[in-house]
UniProtKB/TrEMBL annotation:
Presence of the UniProt keyword Ubl conjugation in the record: no
Xref: PANTHER family: SEGREGATION AND CONDENSATION PROTEIN A
Pfam short name (any one): SMC_ScpA
InterPro entries assigned to the protein according to its UniProt record, in alphabetical order: ScpA
Domain of life of the native organism: Bacteria
UniProt keyword annotations, A-Z: Chromosome partition
Name the UniProt record assigns to this protein: Segregation and condensation protein A
Source organism of this protein record: Arachnia propionica
GO biological process: chromosome segregation
Length: 271
């Protein structure tokens, strides 16, 4: 039986098993069992143990205690796993059989865990070997360069250097901008009442949009106040066909130059 061997650290280097359904390294046998590619119930564990004992006798003292212990742990796990696998299948109701099935799964998990620990140990060992081949340079200057320093030449004297330091460390005043020279334009409500009255008297009816077509934002607000004053005085009427629609303003008659009482608004100033 020929199978491709995967890269994995060896538990027992050089130890191979020769069975009727498998022939190859012992680690490859473990990999096939852990991947369920080979049924552990079909493996003659007694024959594997006999071959390992013969392998130990051949190597003698050259075989380390760690490798022997690893084989015993794995062999015991495989033996327990095989015994649990031999339980009858189907629906199990006996508590003892259920416990045996749980033990089987636990043993299989132990086998996978052992394999993972073995691979991790090999990886750590490789990192240690790589670290042993690297040497870090110690910090600091070498002895021959420690006393060799360049001469420092300053083009300025001590007094000038002190003045430069004082100027650099002196707190600078926070910049500020004066607004006293700025002023906004004032818009009078009384003046806008006269303008609106003259335009409506001449046109008869205008929309509010037409009344403020030549206005900036501030003048638009004041002109709206003027329209409200004319409405309160009964000089104009409002027409609006739809909610939020175009607002029409109709002149109801009268002399546009006739003085009228207007609430004393403070002159609105542009900010």
């Amino acid at each position: 039986m020929t199978r491709r061997r995967e890269e994995a650290p060896e538990t027992t280097p050089g130890f191979a098993v020769h069975l009727t359904n498998f022939e190859g390294p012992f680690d490859l046998l473990l990999q096939l069992i852990s991947k369920r590619e080979l049924d552990v119930t079909q493996v003659a564990l007694s024959q594997v143990t006999d071959e390992f004992i013969a392998h130990v006798r051949v190597l003698g003292d050259t075989l380390g205690l760690e490798q022997t212990s690893s084989f015993l742990v794995v062999a015991a796990t495989l033996l327990d796993l095989k015994a649990a696998r031999l339980l009858p299948g189907g629906e199990v109701t006996d508590p003892e059989d259920l416990a045996a099935l749980e033990a089987r799964d636990l043993l299989f998990a132990r086998l996978l865990q052992y394999r993972a620990f073995k691979q991790l140990a090999a990886w750590l060992a490789e990192r240690v070997r790589d670290a042993e081949q690297r040497h870090w340079r110690p910090g600091g200057l070498e002895e021959r360069f420690r006393d060799v320093l360049p001469e420092v030449e300053l083009p300025v004297g001590a007094d000038r250097l002190a003045r430069l330091a004082a100027r650099a460390l002196t707190p600078r005043p926070v910049p500020s901008v004066q607004l006293t020279h700025l002023h906004g334009s004032r818009v009078s409500v009384v003046e806008q009442v006269g303008i609106v009255a003259e335009r409506l008297n001449a046109a008869g009816q205008l929309s509010f949009r037409q009344l403020v077509a030549d206005c900036d934002r501030l003048t638009t607000v004041v002109r709206f106040l003027a329209v409200l004053e004319l409405f309160r005085a009964g000089r104009v009427s409002f027409e609006q066909a739809d909610p939020l629609g175009e607002l029409g303003i109709r002149w109801l008659g009268g002399d546009p130059n006739q003085p009228m009482t207007v609430d004393e608004y403070e002159s609105v100033e542009e900010p």
